[in-house]
Amino acid sequence: MWNVLLSFSGLVALIQLLFLPFFPESPPYLLLQKGDKAGCLKAMKQLWGEGNYQTEFDDMMKEKALTKGTKIMNVLEVLKERSLYPQLSVMLILLVSLQLCGLSATANLQESIIPYVSLGVAISELISVIFCSSIIDHCGRRVLLWRGYLVMALILVLLETSLLLSDQFLWMRYCNVILIFLFIIAYGIGP
């Protein structure tokens, strides 16, 4: 039934494509990118209902004043800008590293529980996104990075130990899975 599960995301995308034209543009996009004040206020009323949104509008105007001299680049311009190559390289390495690390293959599990492990990986990624987005402003990116790498290193040491013991104790395989989930959460919160 994997093909049904895989087609589900395509069905959701199709529904979004059908209904997206009926929704207004984002108010910040209309004001900050297009400079359409009337469209911004109209979109606010359409999205949030009737009311006075002057405070929100003033906040967006302040943001517009702060970003007035900033040039907004599209993806192609970002890729052509040589000064951004170091940042892009680090970002790509971080994004690809989790996909290519092979952690899920190290758990040495029965084939019947692999779908549950895949579901657990997805839930772990969701937890890390929600948790990271709520604490990043409080802690700062640098602290999250070094703590994330520190926790990931500790988890990898524990994972290696549990892998060595998994042949002697069958229950250690489940510890491997839990450690993999924790590694993914630490990766998502940190790097």
What does this structure look like?
- The structure is a single chain.
- This protein has 191 residues and is an all-alpha fold.
- It folds into two domains: 1-67, no CATH class; 75-189, no CATH class.
- 74% of the residues lie in helices and 0% in strands.
- Helix 2 (27-33) runs antiparallel to helix 3 (37-48), helix 7 runs parallel beside helix 9 (172-189) and helix 8 (141-165) runs antiparallel to helix 9.
- The chain is extended, with a radius of gyration of 23 Å.
Look at the structure and give the mean pLDDT. 78
Gross morphology is: extended
Largest sheet: none
Q: Which regions contain 5 or more consecutive residues with pLDDT less than 50? A: none
The figure for the number of domains is 2
Order of helices and strands: HHHHHHHHH
- The helix tally amounts to 9
Helix percent band? over 70%
Query: What oligomeric state do these chains adopt?
Result: single chain
Total number of strands: 0
User: How big a fraction of the residues is strand?
Assistant: under 5%
> What structural category characterises the helix and strand content?
mainly alpha
Question: What is the rounded distance between the termini?
Answer: 34 Å
What is the rounded Rg?
A: 23 Å
Please specify the SSE layout and strand pairing:
Blueprint: H1 2-19, H2 27-33, H3 37-48, H4 54-66, H5 75-80, H6 85-100, H7 114-139, H8 141-165, H9 172-189
Transmembrane segments: 6-24, 113-132, 144-165, 171-190
Domain Major facilitator superfamily (MFS) profile: 1-191
Keywords: Membrane, Transmembrane, Transmembrane helix
